[in-house]
Amino acid sequence: MRGHQRVVCDQIRRGRKAITAIGVVVMFSGLLVFGCAGDPQKPTPLPSEQVRKNSDRFFDKMKQEERERGTGMERPVP
Questions:
Q1: Contacts of 54 (CB under 8 A, 6+ apart)
Q2: Per-position pLDDT tens, the chain of length 78
Q3: What CA–CA distance (Å, rounded) separates 57 from 46?
């Protein structure tokens, strides 16, 4: 009879380990799904002065490239 009880106890222990492992997997899956379900952080907008500086640099660079190529708006491309 003792051998049978030992087998039953071993099966119960394995079952508990399996249930624990399944519970851990379900818990982590839930954290992944619901942890990412929140509103994403919005990037902070650039101050208007920074936008102005960036646009000035962009247009200056465009003008310089046009001067270097020697082409402007003189000839339309067919």
A1: 46
A2: 566 677 777 778 888 888 899 999 998 888 777 776 666 777 777 788 888 999 999 999 999 998 888 765 555 555
A3: 15
Q: How far is CA 68 from CA 54, 59, 64, 71, 72, in A?
A: 21, 14, 6, 8, 10
DSSP element (H, E) containing 16: helix 2-35
Which residues, in sequence order, are CB contacts of 46 under 8 Å at separation 6+?
54
Instruction: Answer yes or no: is 72 within a domain.
Output: no
For the whole model, what pTM was predicted? 0.39
Residue-number span of the structural domain to which 27 is assigned: 1-32
Please state, in angstroms and rounded to a whole number, the distance separating the CA atoms of residues 22 and 17.
9
The answer to whether residue 18 is domain-embedded is yes
Residue type, 12: I
